[in-house]
Amino acid sequence: AKNSGRGQYRQFEKVMDESLRTRQQMATDLRQALVNFDGLRVWYQPLMEISGQRVVGLEALLRWQHPVRGDVSPGDFIAIAEETGMIITLGEWVLREACKTSLKLPQVIVAVNVSPVQFRASGFVERIVEIVREEGANPHHMELEITEGVLIEDEHEARNNIIALREAGFRIALDDFGTGYSSLNYLSTFPVDKIKIDRSFTQSLGVAQNSAAIVESVVRLGHAMGLTVTAEGVETEGQKVALADAGCNQLQGYLFSQAVPFEEIEKMV
Ligand code: C2E
Ligand code: CA
Ligand code: CA
Ligand code: CA
């Protein structure tokens, strides 16, 4: 038994080595991709007005086609980009792309995800404002999606950043709402414009008991604070109906469309 334990441990070490090597290789490849953004694309997923009939916004979502591995999920490479600091360059590039799209489609709001690592970097607000000005886009047509992760370290600075961005005209959405440890607390401290109910709540509708009551109270709370409420991860007609009944303002999910290239989203808007 002792030997087999040791054997298992060696096996474990080998797996760890491999995954570490894979990550290091991915980091090297991502750095290479960033030289001229080869294989990197920004795709867009529509945000629908509650009827599901009209596109009111677009979320910019990064895509990376690795030269050997093919499509790598942002769930995998964003973390690497954050650990290595490459998310700063990557995030600024996504913002520039989103600005170009906003100029072409001024009838909708274009939303961009902001990593907590970007958000906490010094001069973050100034960089965002400068990039949007350079691209000639209108901050009033843009939304920045942040998560509770921005809170870690300096709550005071996070609040100041949000206030400064809103003063510059940007809308702020609180992403993945309900998944953090302090969502409600966050709402009372941070002046955001929108909450995006996490897809885990959407997908529990009609499955878990009380899920409709939870969603309803989040919507009521959001509205009481003057916020727009969007639900993420809408995949079924049943979820759509339940969310409309709960009073949600906007819907996003595969029921309407996945993220698609600009040429396709342009036709939906
Ligand atoms: P997120 O910001 O919560 O984005 C929503 C994710 O849910 C996207 O995954 C989207 O494709 C997926 N999704 C949308 N509708 C549905 C649905 O109905 N069902 C299901 N199962 N999934 C749905 P994606 O594109 O793989 O992105 C994953 C995460 O990676 C994003 O989560 C975001 O945190 C991060 N990410 C993506 N692009 C960027 C970016 O440009 N910058 C930063 N900082 N993070 C990004
Ligand atoms: Ca998001
Ligand atoms: Ca989300
Ligand atoms: Ca998420």
Explain what this protein looks like in three dimensions.
There is one protein chain. The chain is an alpha/beta fold. It is built from eleven helices and nine strands. The chain has helices at residues 2-36, 74-84, 87-104, 116-120, 124-135, 155-167, 183-189, 199-202, 211-224, 237-246, 262-268; strands at 40-49, 55-66, 70-72, 109-113, 142-146, 171-177, 194-197, 228-231, 250-251. An eight-stranded mixed β-barrel has the order 1-2-4-5-6-7-8-9, surrounded by five helices. The chain is globular. The protein starts with a helix and ends with a helix. The model has no long low-confidence stretch (mean pLDDT 93). The site of ligand C2E has 22 residues, from strand 2, helix 2, helix 3 and strand 6.
Question: What's the short version?
Answer:
This protein is of the alpha/beta class and 269 residues long.
Keywords:
51% helix; Diguanylate cyclase; binds calcium ion; 9 strands; binds ligand C2E; 269 residues; alpha/beta
Query: Which residues sit in consecutive blocks of at least 5 with pLDDT less than 50?
Result: none
| Total of DSSP H or I helical runs spanning 4+ residues | 11
Secondary-structure content class: alpha/beta
Q: What is the makeup of the main sheet?
A: 8 strands, mixed, barrel
Widest sheet: strand ordering: 1-2-4-5-6-7-8-9
- Topology order in helix (H) and strand (E) letters: HEEEHHEHHEHEHEHHEHEH
Question: What percent of residues adopt helix (DSSP H or I)?
Answer: 40-55%
Q: In angstroms, what is the radius of gyration?
A: 20 Å
Q: Give the names of the bound compounds.
A: ligand C2E, calcium ion
Note the quaternary state here. single chain
**How many β-strand runs?**
9
CA distance, first residue to last residue: 64 Å
